[in-house]
Design a protein that fits this description.
heterodimer; A: about 120 residues; mainly alpha; 5 helices; rod-shaped; B: about 375 residues; alpha+beta; 3-stranded antiparallel sheet; two-stranded antiparallel sheet; 16 helices; about 25% helix
């Protein structure tokens, strides 16, 4: 046994084994980190689950309450509404309106009579 | 009003909070195009026709309150027609009603932004959103013949209402915001009088007070019987139909100025009087006959001479000048002679059975 321990090859093998053991020891702890991240991943996915469930919540409200009872703020309207510059350009211009505005044709039956 | 003025937007309006959403948010239409036809594609001229999507996005509560208001829903019309037997599950009735009876319907913008369609519409003041509607343009635009004209003294020989003539009181001084927006009752006479004369004149109208006539008559005679300054408008004989081209039409006989004291058809603790003023309304049993047979099968359930509250009040009037200015004056009272034969049954409850007799001279 002493003769074996004196052989450099033995110590080389021991070194390799110890190094392997160290690597094996360290690998699990290194692999935990990704696992933690992996565990966090579902948490990061959770919002998507919420996003999926959110429309259901909205649709339930819509089903339970008539659409007209859902108060809406004007903010989204402002944000989503396209520019009205063209409307304003004409409807604040008297000269343009005098040229373009037309009285809608009123159709009145010849049989109509009285004040009602 | 000229056509251009009806759609002219004052630049001041652009600084108003109501302009912040932008025209298209409420009215639809197309952005970025200057051609009139293209720009107006998808246009909703009366934005408040869909109030929850326009006014109601900010004014949530009041739009919700006004959703069933009489001005918007005309529940009073439907109620009296139902009393006369109208069945609104019948397509013929619905067709007749929606074709001829809904022109007075008013959404938010009809009072606060535009002139009534009865005056051919158009913006009141360059799209200014008026918190309080214009008294004569808006209120008077619809309530013209039977209220505004009386109140202003338009009818020849009959003075204006003292509340206008001397005090300059606008409609809104007596009629509250809730009256315009609430729809809790079917017709304006279903609940207690509102406004009630005694809301302001309680001190003058006391039994045992300074005014002997009030002591004698307050519990038996509606205020207007003594204080209406003269005749007011009655209408009659309304018919509906469509001509050969399919255009709907309405016909009525020429209106008449009448003053008639009838028996109170709405007697209650709130309206205890024996005598009230009545006026003839433009209805008759064959009103909807163009659309179907016998669509008002219980027409006689309601009178055609109806309880009314003329808006031509004065303190001194021809009928309250003396006892016998009213007592014994058969012409002032609704008798069988005033009612056409086919309406006698409907008016049985309002025809005065016996005109109060002349008082002895010494009692005057």
């Amino acid at each position: 046994m002493k003769s074996v321990m004196k052989r450099p090859v033995f110590w080389a093998i021991v070194g390799v084994v110890l190094l392997g053991a160290l690597v094996l020891f360290l690998r699990p702890s290194a692999s935990l980190a990704p696992n933690s991240e992996a565990a966090a991943q579902p948490a990061a996915v959770d919002p998507s689950i919420l996003i999926e469930s959110a429309p259901q919540a909205v649709s339930m409200v819509a089903q339970e309450a008539p659409a007209q009872e859902q108060p809406e703020t004007s903010a989204p309207v402002v944000a989503d509404t396209p520019s009205s510059d063209n409307c304003i350009a004409c409807h604040t211009n008297q000269a343009v309106l005098e040229q373009l505005a037309e009285e809608p044709e009123e159709v009145v039956s010849e049989l109509a009579a009285g004040e009602g | 009003m000229e056509a251009w003025k009806k759609v002219f937007v004052e630049e001041d309006f652009l600084d108003d909070v109501h302009a912040e959403p932008g025209c298209i948010a409420c009215h639809g239409g197309q952005s970025g195009v200057m051609d009139k036809v293209q720009a107006h594609e998808g246009l909703l001229p009366k934005a408040s026709a869909n109030p929850q999507q326009s006014c109601g996005t900010c004014h949530v509560g009041i739009v919700e309150q006004a959703r069933d208001s009489n001005h918007r829903m005309q529940l009073g019309y439907q109620e009296v027609l139902e009393h006369r037997g109208a069945d609104f599950t019948m397509p013929e009735t619905v067709k007749a009603y929606t074709t001829h009876c809904t022109k007075c319907h008013a959404d938010c913008g009809d009072c606060h932004v535009s002139r009534p369609s009865a005056l051919d519409g158009g913006l009141i003041a360059g799209h200014q959103v008026k918190r309080v509607a214009s008294v004569f343009v808006t209120c008077g635009g619809c309530h013209s013949a039977r209220v505004s004209d009386e109140y202003k003294g338009v009818h020849e020989g009959i003075p204006a209402d003292v509340h206008w003539e001397k005090a300059g009181m606008p409609c809104t001084q007596c009629h509250t915001m809730d009256e315009y927006h609430e729809g809790t009752h079917g017709t304006r006479y279903d609940d207690a009088p509102s406004p009630d004369c005694v809301d302001c004149h309680a001190d003058d109208v006391t039994v045992g007070g300074d005014n002997l006539q009030h002591t004698i008559h307050t519990s038996t005679v509606q205020c207007q019987v003594c204080h209406a300054a003269g005749e007011y408008k009655s209408c009659s004989n309304c018919h509906t139909g469509r001509d050969d081209s399919g255009i709907p039409y309405t016909t009525t006989d020429p209106s008449e100025m009448t003053f008639k004291i009838g028996a109170n058809p709405l007697k209650s603790d709130d309206r205890p009087w024996d005598y009230v003023l009545v006026r003839h309304v433009p209805t008759n049993s064959d009103l909807f006959d163009f659309y179907g047979d016998n669509l008002l099968p219980e027409f006689d359930n309601l009178p055609t001479w109806k309880y009314t509250t003329p808006h031509n009040m004065q303190r001194i009037t021809p009928q309250n000048a003396s006892c016998n200015s009213c007592h014994g004056q058969t012409d002032l009272f609704l008798t069988e002679n005033d009612v056409v034969a086919e309406e006698l049954e409907a008016n049985r409850d309002v025809i005065v059975p016996r005109v109060p007799p002349t008082r002895p001279e010494q009692r005057q």
